[in-house]
Amino acid sequence: MPDNAPRLGLRANWPQFAVFTVLTLLVGMTIGVERVAVPPLARSAFGVTGLLYTVSFVSAFGAVKALMNLLAGRLSDRHGRRPWLLLGWAFAVPYAVLIIFAQAWWWVVAANLFLGVNQALTWTMSVTAKIDLVGPVNRGLAVGIDEAAGYVGTGLGGVAAGLLAASFGLRPAPYLLALGVIVTGAALTWLGARETLPFARAEGRGQPASRAPGLRRLFTYMLWQDRTMLAACQAGLVNKIADSLVIAIFPLYFLSHGLTLAAVGLLVGEYALVWGLGQVGSGWLADRLGRKPPIVSGTLLLAVGVVAALVGGGGGLSFGAAGAMGVGMALAYPNLLTVVGDTARPSWRGGALGVYRLCRDSGYALGPLLLALAGIRAAFWLAAALLALSGVFSLALLQETEPSRRGGDPAWTRHPDLNG
What we know:
Layout: H1 14-46, H2 51-54, H3 56-79, H4 82-100, H5 105-134, H6 139-168, H7 173-192, H8 197-204, H9 215-225, H10 227-256, H11 261-289, H12 292-312, H13 316-343, H14 349-374, H15 376-397
Helix pairs in contact: 1-5, 1-6, 1-7, 1-10, 3-5, 3-14, 4-5, 4-7, 5-6, 5-8, 6-7, 6-11, 6-13, 9-10, 9-14, 10-11, 10-13, 10-14, 10-15, 11-13, 12-13, 12-15, 14-15
């Protein structure tokens, strides 16, 4: 590698890694407000009582986020990560303003279209930047730190939104908090974040040159020709269906069982905080034991936690179940991203992460609709069944990708058009 090439590694790049970690924390806080403050708003402010209509805001968010993940990953391989990160913060402002001044429920649904763009651009670029900086060594730890920061932020945002809503009402206080977070994130990106695309190019140096494959080719490869990528994509989608349960169904279910809005905020925040904090250890563990064990065990633990949350009915068991679900997410969620980062070629890593995140966040678009059609109680059983099947599927198809434990070369090396 030339002397002027960027140096890869967590230690060599810790100041920039820290900047992107704080940015991910702020991204998580933005979405954390949504998880607690929006579902009760449907009935109290707009008289919306239908379950399908109530959860439509999550589907709108998920559909846009999934598509923008794909676009952002693809374009960032050509034009860099930082410009899209800045654009993502700009899209967050209309989200908060629209909900503050909403006169009808469709304003809230429209606001979530802006939030979907914000989350896709900011979170995709933040995690991709961290993967760029560290290179192949300790990649699991790096992704674990990234996702930990994001979901600690989600938990903090959820708890803060619950407390603000209980004290000052569902509007505008939680969304003024969101606006403050958005402005802080934009300022930190503008003043402190550097472009990381040169680091990805430095990692790919020494490999045969090749053009990034087209989207159709990437989809064919990831969802048909590489069974590990397929396993990761389906597991990510089902994880998001489970998370949709927490966002869309948990507040409605537990409020109907006598919990206060503040208590619901604590329960949802507990899940997100355990998920967030646990991902650092999960990433570290995956660098030492491999990616597959935590992914499979975490997905199955999620299934158990969903059933326990339902049976608990808002009591102590439900709070314990929320913690168990957080542990399950911590084990599976960051390591699925790491599998894609391990497997993709650096020259088209952004596009591969975009395809994965499209599949994963489609769970936000499909999940609320499926769960609402099932009904509140049946939604828990449906989510648990899908998680159990996903865990078995991952056990059967997912191959280990941790570099020192990988059984062979990545599947793309057997496809000339992906291999230079």
